[in-house]
Amino acid sequence: MTAMTAHAPSSPLHVLEHVFGYTAFRGEQQAVVEHVSAGGDALVLMPTGGGKSLCYQVPALLRAGTAVVVSPLIALMQDQVSALREAGVAAAYLNSSQAADESVTVERDLVAGRLDLLYVAPERLLTGRMLATLDRLHEAGRIALFAIDEAHCVSQWGHDFRPEYLQLSVLPERYPGVPRIALTATADADTREEIAQRLGLATARRFISSFDRPNIRYRMVDKDNPRNQLLAFIRDDHAGDAGIVYCLSRRKVEETAAWLEEQGIRALAYHAGMPQDVRAANQSRFLREDGLVMCATIAFGMGIDKPDVRFVAHLDLPRSIEGYYQETGRAGRDGLPSQAWMAWGAQDIVQQRRMIDESEGSEDFKRRARARLDALVGLVETTGCRRKHLLAHFGEQGEHCGNCDNCLEPPRTWDATDAARKALSGVFRTGQRFGAGHVIDVLRGELTDKVRDWEHDKVSTFGIGADVEEKTWRTLFRQLVARGLLAVDHDRHNALTLTDLARPLLRGEAEFSLRLAPEKRRTKRMRGTRMEILDGVPLTLFDRLRAWRAATARERNVPAYVIFHDATLREIALARPGSIEELAHVSGIGDRKLEAYGTAIIAEIAREV
Fold first, then answer.
1. 448 by DSSP, 3-state: which?
2. What are the names of the required cofactors (predicted)?
3. In this predicted model, what pLDDT tens digit does every residue of 36-58 receive, in sequence order?
4. Which of 118, 298, 321, 418 is the most buried (most CB within 10 A)?
5. Which CATH number fits domain 216-410: 3.40.50.300, 2.40.10.10, 3.30.750.24, 3.40.190.10?
């Protein structure tokens, strides 16, 4: 394969169009590319699907030498290398999955200058052998740049923390003058500072794109038989689509995958407790086959480059807004309509608070974990626009999106201030030593044996809530716990206790609004994202193009999306080009792919009756 460096492309736009098949950059891409191509360091925060890879791939083809890309996952680097080779770029990777002779061949190509990009795991990069090779290349002026992908792995507060990333601070010391670009899709202000400090990028130019993913519809539902809710969601909106279902426990992952299979949904399981070969096989199937649903813990996802994941569902509450944003961001990387769906209940919050309280982390760690959980509770409890609330967390202003559940079907609310004060008073008057059931009995004036034994029929709160149904009281107590006004003492049989947050409400200085469950009557169903994607597309041609792509991918032993994204096939089906020249104008088709697949695509179109 001839390296692109031999072609001496004249500009970023030339590379973008002729190699990758796009006629224009998006958002901050061009500014990043020009800055890094000119030798500048950069810290790039760009949402998943925003085109981060092009920010270093294009400069790699413009600068002399080989670009070294640090990537944390084997699957990610393999897929990216496959995609680059399909586009005619001389790319390779070095990781533990290779046989010794394969690694030697790649190292020879690197030393001989036959590679434009080399993907390498951080632990491999930092070996004495690799550093010695890079030393020789640096002396010869043949390292184009260093790209540090998934840079949030350097943050010790994230669940993707990789200790090897901390050692990447050696790069500017050892290879001065070589531009470095660190990229991530998930980093709040504190994490950005941590990345810059730990990677020696304090003076690097920062490019912070919008966190908004307008093609993703956010939907959150109250748990009420969540498995059946999930099944209805998939069947109604995403039949035959690829998706990810996140669960908190390994057991739940396996049970959910098995249950979906029984319901006729093609599903796989993935968690860290599975044998490595099974995990790898399942991940490979998910990446290479169309229409599979992966049930997984958060062990699955980082570096998943599959662009046509049409939905991400959560059957349990994530641990933070950052985690939720990162996980849901795996949907719709191709820019086509997709959904982020979650079933949650107040018990999820109680469980996570208990996990934080019982963890062995420091008090500072627990404080941060609680703050992040509280921020997530604010998102799921909001009665306003989900997207606006989500963007605000990352310091970005947004308008009502018109494409989340709250915008499309505004929820009913109840001013529960008076009832909430009665509930808190009920907990206080009964001594903060009982669970919700007993306090509700007191509030409703129920003369149970327990009420009589403790003489709680004589307290001032006895019967003051008789006009409120027991079910409503239980919902209110769950929300008081969820929002932190009540705490659960697990060591005292789940007794409820007041927190400092309850004081303003008890003093009449705050209000309490309760989100009500939707009415049972059938509301107007949201239009499924699948309908939006296929609107106006000739289905027979689109399906035939997908079938051709699948067969071609099997022949070449690469994931289907490496050949073409769904978005490209959709555009082909809409445009129905009648010649190679017309096909060349379709977004996503570069020179190499036009030469390799143009004739076959035109033949598929010609078969249309």
1. coil
2. Mg(2+); Zn(2+)
3. 999 999 999 988 777 899 999 99
4. 118
5. 3.40.50.300
